[in-house]
Amino acid sequence: MAPAAPSGPTIPTVRGPVALADLGTVLMHEHVFVLSEEFRRSMPETWDEEERVADAVTRLKALAATGVTTLVDPTVIGLGRDVRRVARVNEQVDLNIVAATGVYTLGDIPDFFRYHGPGTLLGGPDGMTELFVRELEEGIAGTGIRAAFLKCAIEAELTPGVERVMRAVAQAHLRTGAPITVHTAAAARTGLTAQEVLRREGVDLGAVVIGHSGDTADLDYLHRLVDNGSYLGMDRFGLDLLLPGDQRVATVAALAGEGLADRMVLSHDASCHIDWFPPGVREAVAPDWHHTHLHDQVLPALRRAGVTEEQLTTMLVDNPRRYFTPTGT
């Protein structure tokens, strides 16, 4: 007998639609695979497909065993996204995996879009927006797996390419209502820059997560992001090279103590496999940067710092559900 269709508002996942009410405990910024796809194909000796899939299954089963039920994966074009591979993993793990659409660039736009679109040699409408809308409404790369949110990125500066991607993401949001997550550099305060670009395009900043806000303990900056309406992505627990874990915990606890738990989401920005580093380096320099660190160590530390169970539920359950709830529902 086929499973009953979910009732009420739903969210697309790699395995199909899931009721928003059933998302459960959510990690809002995690990756299954992050790959430099052309290099991977050029150096096949660095990649064993079956080994990597099996390893991801093992890692995500360990995550599911902590009680996490949903993983939000902002892997988009530019990060080696392959939803077919993720689906192979998901077939073997009882976990909701939410896919994204968008482009990850910190500088130029992909050459595929360089000569056509607004302000280019050939002009015309922006094909990125059309791509993003199709992946939200129809599916990614002919798989039928629909994206549920949009992703763009900015580091230290707003380059013309970064701004064009951001504007295309904004236009896709306005057409579909899909929420947005932005990779930002907290040290450069570029979350504020992203908010300004998106605001100018007409985006409701309440539908935006400012990713990697947890890389700073600058409460003034974080308050400004919240005052503008967005969620704070406190989403790099375990990446102590950028900010020690005790400072990350103290920052979340301080904001929660101010009544701002409803403006934060928690995660690691970890991956089952990322090829940006030589083998063994990630484990050596960031041993806690993995998908179960939050439940193993961070949540107990937050409790000791005075964060209540109700506040943890707000950040891990209620805020993700609200973020993905369509406007007007």
Descriptive terms for the model:
329 residues; alpha/beta; TIM Barrel; 6-stranded parallel sheet; 3-stranded parallel sheet
Description:
The chain has 329 residues and is of the alpha/beta class. It has a single domain (10-324), classed as Metal-dependent hydrolases (TIM Barrel). It is built from 11 helices and 13 strands. The chain has a 6-stranded parallel beta sheet. Strands 3-5-6 form a 3-stranded parallel beta sheet. It is globular, with a radius of gyration of 19 Å. The two termini are 30 Å apart.
Gist?
The chain has helices at 37-42, 49-65, 83-90, 127-137, 160-176, 190-200, 219-227, 245-257, 281-285, 293-304, 309-324, and strands at 10-11, 18-19, 26-27, 31-34, 70-72, 96-98, 100-102, 149-153, 180-183, 208-211, 231-234, 264-266, 271-274. The protein is α/β, with parallel strands linked by helices.
Radius of gyration, Cα only, in angstroms?
19 Å
CATH homologous superfamily placement = Metal-dependent hydrolases
CATH architecture descriptor: Alpha-Beta Barrel
Instruction: Tell me, briefly, the overall form.
Output: globular
Strand percentage lies at 5-15%
Low-confidence stretches: none
User: Can you count the beta strands?
Assistant: 13
Count of DSSP-assigned helices? 11
CATH-derived topology: TIM Barrel
| Strand line-up of the largest beta sheet | 7-8-9-10-11-12
Largest sheet: 6 strands, parallel
CATH class call = Alpha Beta
Helix content: 25-40%
Domains (count): 1
Distance between the termini: 30 Å
Structural class: alpha/beta
Order of helices and strands: EEEEHHEHEEHEHEHEHEHEEHHH
The overall pLDDT average reads 96
